[in-house]
Amino acid sequence: MGMAHWTVEECRYFVDVIVPQSKYANGDHDENALRKSFGDLAKQMQDAMDAIGVNKRKYTQSNMFQHYYQKPMHPLHLLQVPHPMVAQVLLLLERSVRRT
Q: What pLDDT is attached to residue 1?
């Protein structure tokens, strides 16, 4: 059975604070990066969530790694700008609606 869904606060902290400090900051694991592992960052995440009263789980290397890979954490997904293909798809949809 899976873990409970992460709250908005957990997700925001993970994306905004934890990932940029991690070896995954560039979108892929970079063992040579002078950054921390998720295991090293688990206590920081735990302390921050306990401080704001979001203590739904114990953060570990494993569950932070799983959360990273289960969510669209690739840098392209983190950008607020849509992928170039989105504009092309929307244009095609608009044209098809006009024809009907």
A: 44
Distance separating alpha carbons of residues 52 and 59, to the nearest angstrom: 15
Query: Which residues, other chains included, contact 23 with Cβ-Cβ below 8 Å and sequence gap of 6+?
Result: 29, 30, 31, 33, 35, 36, 37
Q: Is 38 in contact with 64 (CB distance < 8 Å)?
A: yes
Which DSSP state fits 22? B
- Name the one residue in this structure whose structure tokens are 């206590």: 43
Residues 47-78: b if buried by 16+ CB within 10 A, e if exposed: ebbeeeeeeeeebeeebbbebbeeeebeeeee
Q: What six digits make up the tokens of 57? A: 């789980």
Mean pLDDT of the chain: 79
Q: Is the pLDDT of residue 82 over 70?
A: no
Higher pLDDT, 11 or 74: 11
